[in-house]
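Dear H.,

Thanks for agreeing to be a second pair of eyes. The structure we're designing against is below in token form, covering all 185 positions.
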């Protein structure tokens, strides 16, 4: 009988111990939006392909349905854009913005963006991904979500604030990307 009691007490304490170890106390990391763990400003340069600039083009329309309004609704663009530390397109790229964006609104210019910034420089190696709506036709600055990364940016999260610095019709644009990372490992 005493042996049975010891077995039950031992089983109870073992269960409590296992339960406690498997439910590691989770403490949500709080973010101070005034103090990102990393902050830098980059410039993205986009040159659209238009039949006569294949050597210089960094973006190409792969779907362009006709007759869907005045705001390019349904248009899909694939890109491999250089990203520099300043506004000069001829500056040495520190990254490439690879991905796509598409026009998703019939009433004004609005895009949805999925870009991975691929870094391969002496300062940074790795990637992070920007995915979000980009209502560039309505807002002077737009906040887009940074949803993860690899290498120096492993599992990072943050905000990329975009501002159009220069636009030459549909041929070329330069975006200032104010990058603030709030979760860094």
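And this is the sequence the design step returned. I haven't edited it by hand at all.
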């Amino acid at each position: 009988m005493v042996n049975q009691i010891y077995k039950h007490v031992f089983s109870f304490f073992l269960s409590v111990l296992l339960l406690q170890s498997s439910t590691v106390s989770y403490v949500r990391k709080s973010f101070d939006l005034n103090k990102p763990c990393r902050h830098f400003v980059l410039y993205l340069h986009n040159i659209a392909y238009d039949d006569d600039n294949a050597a210089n083009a960094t973006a190409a329309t792969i779907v362009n349905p006709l007759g869907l309004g005045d705001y390019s609704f349904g248009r899909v663009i694939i890109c491999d854009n250089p990203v520099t530390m300043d506004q000069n397109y001829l500056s040495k790229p520190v990254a490439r913005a690879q991905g796509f964006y598409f026009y998703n609104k019939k009433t004004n210019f609005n895009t949805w963006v999925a870009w991975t910034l691929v870094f391969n420089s002496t300062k940074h190696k790795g990637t992070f991904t920007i995915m979000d709506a980009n209502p560039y036709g309505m807002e002077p600055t737009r906040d887009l979500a940074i949803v993860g990364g690899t290498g120096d940016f492993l599992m990072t999260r943050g905000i990329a604030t975009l501002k159009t610095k220069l636009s030459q019709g549909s041929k070329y644009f330069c975006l200032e990307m104010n990058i603030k990372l709030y979760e860094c490992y």
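Two observations from my side: Helices lie at 2-22. The radius of gyration is 24 Å.

Warmly,
E.
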